[in-house]
Amino acid sequence: xxxxxxxxxxxxxxxxxxxxxxxxxxxxxxxxxxxxxxxxxxxxxxxxxxxxxxxxxxxxxxxxxxxxxxxxxxxxxxxxxxxxxxxxxxxxxxxxxxxxxxxxxxxxxxxxxxxxxxxxxxxxxxxxxxxxxxxxxxxxxxxxxxxxxxxxxxxxxxxxxxxxxxxxxxxxxxxxxxxxxxxxxxxxxxxxxxxxxxxxxxxxxxxxxxxxxxxxxxxxxxxxxxxxxxxxxxxxxxxxxxxxxxxxxxxxxxxxxxxxxxxxxxxxxxxxxxxxxxxxxxxxxxxxxxxxxxxxxxxxxxxxxxxxxxxxxxxxxxxxxxxxxxxxxxxxxxxxxxxxxxxxxxxxxxxxxxxx
Length: 356
Ligand SMILES: *Cc1c(COP(=O)(O)O)cnc(C)c1O
Fold this sequence. Notes:
- This protein has helices spanning 9-25, 42-47, 61-66, 85-91, 100-112, 139-146, 170-187, 202-206, 221-225, 335-343, and strands at 4-8, 30-34, 55-58, 74-76, 94-97, 117-124, 132-133, 151-158, 193-195, 216-219, 243-256, 279-285, 297-299, 305-309, 314-317, 328-333, 348-352.
- By secondary structure, the chain is an alpha/beta fold.
- The strands form 2 sheets. Strands 2, 3, 4, 5, 6, 7, 8, 9 and 10 form a 9-stranded parallel β-sheet that branches.
- Strand 5 (94-97), helix 5 (100-112) and strand 6 (117-124) form a beta-alpha-beta unit.
- Helix 4 (85-91) crosses helix 5 (100-112).
- The longest helix is centred in the middle third of the chain and has 18 residues, at 170-187.
- The model has no long low-confidence stretch (mean pLDDT 96).
- Residues 34, 36, 59, 77, 96, 159, 198-199, 218-222, 229 line the site of pyridoxal-5'-phosphate (PLP).
- Pyridoxal-5'-phosphate (PLP) binds at residues 34, 36, 59, 77, 96, 159, 198-199, 218-222, 229.
């Protein structure tokens, strides 16, 4: 059935193993596989369990619940909401946190469930997404956390290159190390994990610039697309095409390129911006904006040009392509595209097992 997302599991296993080799060689002893882009798809995660990652990390508690039967410890990446506290303790071994109020609720709940819940306290080093701002007085908060009997302050972490696009450097990550040292010095608490970010921290490893005390990274895009996210560079040793979108032509006709009649709004309430190129061969493919943002997919066949889409019809200019009704077309995608396609229940997901 089309539209279909074809997943080459061998390419993903290759990427995952290569990344783990790199991390192990650089003393990253704790390695989180960030699965959120897979929208809880168990078969892919299962295939990646033995590639060297030490934990499964996801931003949605429903996904961690789906991974319950897998042996690796689970990490909730998005700061838990108060309404999620019970499920966080139930389905996550570790959660990332930044709010004392929520951490106290986690403590209460962990007591109820007879568990010790581990937390990684997040620090904002300037990217301005989650975390305690690094210049604020954090020791008071940590003193409070250390009093909680069912909470283990397992580590500290930071997240960069997410909202503000701030690139990890020895200087900003150095602030995290200072925090670690200050916690040891002032509160005599040793942390197991110093979590130095996501796929945007990979270039620091190549440049031998990752501060030595960083012993954990949380990685998604570099595994699924072989791309670091500080500068957007593709790693030669990794595949970027483990995922392909496959679509079928449902209409193929020669028509004018410019609409005929009085022009108002299109199906998304916008004024269409259409260039008159005379008559052209046009194909309609069975996918739409309900499933994907058109900027996130790239036709493999260079003779195909995406014109626009409505919620379920993708319109392409195909003048130079040899096609018929029913032809199959392949598209490459990027990380946001994969996120959308995995989330759409209208896309068939098919796992393929060869490197071809
Ligand atoms: C998504 C996410 C990651 C993974 O980011 P990538 O750039 O895909 O490696 C790491 N940490 C947190 C908190 C995240 O939300």
